[in-house]
From TrEMBL:
It comes from the Bacteria. It comes from Ectorhizobium quercum. Its EC number is 4.4.1.13. Belongs to the trans-sulfuration enzymes family. This is Cystathionine beta-lyase.
Length: 396
């Protein structure tokens, strides 16, 4: 008889999300894995203690709960192995530490998540690792930036806050020819809408804080590597002593079960709002890769299966000196959108984006950039809320 795990390889995405990482009969038939708390794991005798030849050996090396989540993520990513770390930012920094050493050079996309850039500029630099930033739209032209010591290329597509789309296969091909590892922050798309390893990336990075957790109550990162790069990743995680809590791992696994239907709702509502905003008289530009007007839309269409719930727009303002006041008036008038960082949760959020750290990309100059995280509320209510913001912004 065909095994369930084999069927799941071919099944639809929601079927996979409902069953991946699940092994009820290993746990007396209970549908969900138990939460294994623990540092110490006992060995049955001195011989096994010496050899450590058993599946679990110590809390930081994994538990059945964290393994259930890693199994599900590996199946979604197509990866050889996954490590869980305490935040999405840690997922980026641990990946860099896995593949970079003193004297190396790394190429990092200019539209990278701000704190990832801070780690490069402050910490990697201190360790004697040189980082150059590149234009997200550079494509195969990245070849000109390679040095003999370039060991890692980091992508984030779409980019943080401005959502530029990268030519992932073209950049990966060049990087591999130069012997560099390709890492990618894939948090925006999740493996449902983009599978980095299928497009040439070696290591896929996620803030599972966002859509997998889905409820704004967990911080966690996941790093998933292909066969060639898995051992180095597993090793650095062990050496750094990082692990994810069993409660949080349980809750992320629970979040994964509904991620497909949540994402579909986020996708639809965000696109509805983006299309409406594009025609709004107080909007200069909408930065959403699924809009045909967006530069990079063709690449998005070629590579991605969907778009998620976070995008930005450029709010018109009367003169540069009123950018901040106009943005603040807009934000302060919102009642359903909360003002806050993060995204991927069930509730909508808005903020003004600060792009002052960019060194290569040309950022929008027509007005302040407002980022919207579109949650699971009814889209008409969100639209009415945004109208409140526009009315207040008009008065500035
Ligand atoms: C693209 C991206 N990567 C990584 C992170 C970091 O995730 P965490 O908040 O779990 O550290 C974020 C957080 O906003 C993000 O937007």
């Amino acid at each position: 008889m065909t095994k369930k795990t084999d069927l799941l390889d071919e099944a639809g995405v929601d079927t996979r999300l409902a069953h991946l990482g699940s092994d009820p009969f290993a746990f007396h038939g209970f549908v969900n894995p138990p939460i294994y708390r623990g540092s110490t794991v006992l060995f049955p005798d001195a011989e096994v203690l010496e050899s450590e030849d058993q599946q679990y050996t110590y809390g930081t090396h994994g538990t059945p709960t964290t393994d259930a989540l890693c199994t599900a993520i590996n199946a979604l990513e197509g990866s050889a192995g996954t490590v869980l770390v305490p935040s999405g930012l840690a997922a980026v920094t641990v990946a860099f530490l896995a593949y970079l050493s003193a004297g190396d050079h790394a190429l990092v996309v200019d539209s990278v998540y701000g704190p990832s850039r801070r780690f490069c500029n402050r910490t990697l630099k201190r360790f004697g690792i040189e980082v150059d930033y590149y234009d997200p739209q550079i494509g195969a032209g990245i070849e000109a930036l390679f040095k003999p010591n370039t060991k890692l290329v980091h992508l984030e597509s779409p980019g943080s806050n401005t959502f530029e789309i990268q030519d992932v296969p073209a950049i990966s091909e060049v990087a591999h020819r130069h012997g560099a590892v390709v890492t990618m922050d894939n948090t925006w798309a999740t493996p449902l809408y983009f599978r980095p390893l299928d497009h040439g990336v070696d290591v896929s990075i996620h803030a599972v804080t966002k859509y997998p957790a889905g409820h704004s109550d967990i911080l966690m990162g996941a790093i998933s590597a292909n066969e060639a790069n898995w051992k180095a990743l597993e090793r650095i995680n062990l050496y750094l002593g990082l692990s994810a809590s069993p409660e949080d791992s349980y809750l992320v696994l629970r979040g994964l079960r509904t991620m497909g239907i949540r994402l579909e709702h986020h996708r639809k509502s965000a696109l509805t709002l983006a299309e409406w905003l594009e025609g709004h008289e107080q909007v200069a530009r909408v930065l959403h890769p699924a809009l045909p007007s967006f530069p990079g839309h063709d690449l998005w269409k070629r590579d991605f299966k969907g778009s998620s719930g976070i995008f930005s727009f450029v709010l018109k303002a009367n003169g540069k000196d009123r950018f901040l006041a106009t943005a603040s008036a807009f934000l302060d008038a919102l009642r359903i959108f909360g003002l806050g960082y993060s995204w991927g949760g069930y509730e909508s959020l808005a903020l003004r984006v600060n792009l002052t750290d960019r060194t290569i990309t040309k950022v929008p100059e027509e007005g302040p950039v407002i980022r919207l995280q579109v949650g699971l509320e009814n889209v008409e209510d969100l639209q009415a809320d945004i109208e409140r913001g526009f009315a207040a912004a008009k008065a500035v």
